[in-house]
Amino acid sequence: MRFSERTNWNTEESELARAHRLRREAGLPIADLTASNPTRCGFVYPPDLLDALTDPRALAYDPDPRGSLAAREAVCAYYATHNTLSGIGIEPSQIVLTTSTSEAYSFLFRLLCDPGSEILILQPGYPLFDFLAALDDVRLKPVPLLYDHGWQIDPAAIRKAIGPATRAIVLVHPNNPTGHFTKAWEAAELARLCREFDLSLIVDEVFLDYYSFGASSGANSGANSGLGPQSFAAGLEDVPVFTVSGLSKIAGLPQMKAAWIVAAGPERTAAPWPAIDRLEVIADTFLSMNAPVQCALPRWLALRKVIQDQIAARVSANLAELDRQLAAAPAVHRLRVEGGWYAVLRIPALGPDEQTVLRLLDRGVWVHPGYFFGMPASGWLVLSLLAPEPEFTLGVSVLVNYLGMNQDAQHQAGADKVEL
Hints:
By secondary structure, the chain is an alpha/beta fold.
């Protein structure tokens, strides 16, 4: 059988995946410090959550490529609880519902790119983009974030990476896994580059509501207004901006498959607006958003604080516990985090991080090597802060004990300025 080259992936089980599977099959304990699925982390959901799926309106097939008006109005109400960088609100006409942010990315890659076009992606970042780009015949060009007393973009590096095939820049706000919130000066630099080179900006805001470790103290301008951190949803001056988000993180409901695109730009007041009209055709081709979830979306968004408050409390407690234990391991340095639910550790770069992860797994702890997110192959670990507190405390204790044996490498990891 002949297959497409775009699906010519290496699907063999990796050494890490095999070791993890074998330990689980042997029934040996694992403190999972990679946990990212809130439905499996012990949070309590409203008992009537699924009642929203019984709305009788879902029995009538009345497809709208952009999604039902009621659902899109609920998304607008959600953004009304956040400041926007432009200071204006959004309207239902700017929104296209999708089943996931992955589908939203695919729609946008098809909207903006021809086969062989390039998208700039800031790293460290989530590895899913590689597969999405390959499926849509788009090339990704990574651009590193800088770390110097906190994470920040490097405008000069972005400018250098822009070429004739570049169509857009992908920004994750806050970043996964670094927790970096885009500051006002960074947004201004990105807007300047997009205007100069006729690029679009794609902004992933799935972690926007999780900002309690830094944005509330000024890391994200506007966070002290009572409306939460600033969103890109209303756009930037004279720049096409496409913001994606969804219930997976906002309401801790990844299984409900509800997400959206908010389109903004210099032509948003035009009728017809080419960007939204073309997105509507793409969405109409698939009509993938199901009616029961669309009917339930307003209710689930209204209940989001129930799960968000639990996640925020868990993440804050685990971050404090991580810092408490790391005080006994000066060779390990936690990088600053402003939001999301991950922490990045700089560890002694004495060998490949994959070997460190395997040795920790032998001791019953499962963590991510940094290279999963585009970091170098040695010297980086990524931890989720979502695990139940007793499990997290135990896992960090084992990790600190193991890494503490490398005290002689302290000078390699303790600086506040880190080169990626």
